[in-house]
């Protein structure tokens, strides 16, 4: 099917907000809702191949987000005006709350390659076999065989994943229900989960809970704020600055800054002969 949507697949699927997308030429292969999905750019939109409905794919890609209005809202200075033009088509994704929470629990203190390796290992061990790819496992699938988590090489994250799977499988935590909370209450509830700190809570709130004002701060964003805005200090100070400066769509500004810093880092390494 052809989807009428203004989107850059490389920017959206390759920017690190989701970790199960694999690129083969101009085709992106991912697993959404336990189904393999192929996306390919086409004139005026995107071609989608898979067994997901049009409405679900559009929902996942946040086709309801008005990019013109959002980019206009965050373009409050010269830097952001440049980034909104340079990275036109970058969208946030509306990920499944359970999968997003479990994935970002693994993402603590790990680079993108390591995160992807851990996530795929978890899927191969516990997820349904889709024929070449595996679905992201349900909490019940992990909890029923949680002794096998040690084989996934998650390190100290293993016990955190075991605890999270147990609380979701037992109904003590229902990630979908957090979507209905305010941003502050959502982040507060997430931070009550063992292993979830400020950054993970903001990432989950932004990428799966529809809180587009969330402004996660990692090393890249911290560097960008320091170099471009003269802001440094605690996580709360930096995140509050981002929310205050960029407003209700601060999460989009964060992704634009993240993309810019990643590109700058890559260029710097290339020029230095590091890649």
Shape, per Cα inertia axes: globular
- CATH class annotation of the largest domain: Mainly Alpha
Distance separating the two termini? 38 Å
Percent strand = 5-15%
Known CATH architecture of the largest domain: Orthogonal Bundle
Rg over CA atoms:
18 Å
- What order do the helices and strands follow? EHEEEEHHHHHHHHHHHH
**Mean of residue pLDDT?**
92
Helix count, DSSP H or I runs of 4 or more residues = 13
Reported by name, the CATH topology of the largest domain is Endonuclease III, domain 1
Number of domains: 3
> Mind summarizing the main beta sheet?
5 strands, antiparallel
Query: Which structural class do you get from the secondary structure elements?
Result: alpha+beta
Within CATH, the superfamily of the largest domain carries the name: Hypothetical protein, domain 2
- Percent range for helical residues? 40-55%
What is the total tally of β strands?
5
Largest beta sheet: what is the strand line-up?
A: 1-5-4-3-2
Low-confidence stretches: 265-275
């Amino acid at each position: 099917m052809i989807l009428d949507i203004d989107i850059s697949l490389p920017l959206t699927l390759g920017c690190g907000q989701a970790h199960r997308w694999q690129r083969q030429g101009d085709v992106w292969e991912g697993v959404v809702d336990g189904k393999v999905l192929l996306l390919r750019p086409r004139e005026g939109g995107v071609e989608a191949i898979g067994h997901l409905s049009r409405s679900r794919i559009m929902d996942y890609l946040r086709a309801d987000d008005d990019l013109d209005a959002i980019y206009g809202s965050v373009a409050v200075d010269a830097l952001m005006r440049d980034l909104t033009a340079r990275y036109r088509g970058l969208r946030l994704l509306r990920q499944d709350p359970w999968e997003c929470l479990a994935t970002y629990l693994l993402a603590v203190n790990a680079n993108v390659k390591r995160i992807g390796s851990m996530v795929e290992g978890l899927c191969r061990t516990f997820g349904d076999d889709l024929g070449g790819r595996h679905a992201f496992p349900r909490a019940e699938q992990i909890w029923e065989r949680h002794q096998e988590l040690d084989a996934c090489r998650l390190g100290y994250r293993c016990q955190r994943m075991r605890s999270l799977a147990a609380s979701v499988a037992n109904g003590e935590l229902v990630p979908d229900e957090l979507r209905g909370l305010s941003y502050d209450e959502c982040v507060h509830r997430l931070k009550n989960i063992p292993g979830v700190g400020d950054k993970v809570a903001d990432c989950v709130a932004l990428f799966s809970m529809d809180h587009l004002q969330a402004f996660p701060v990692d090393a890249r964003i911290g560097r960008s704020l320091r170099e471009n805005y003269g802001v440094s200090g605690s996580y709360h100070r930096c995140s509050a600055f981002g929310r205050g400066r960029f407003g209700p769509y601060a999460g989009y500004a964060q992704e634009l800054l993240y993309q810019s810093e990643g590109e700058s880092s890559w260029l710097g390494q290339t020029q230095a002969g590091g890649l």
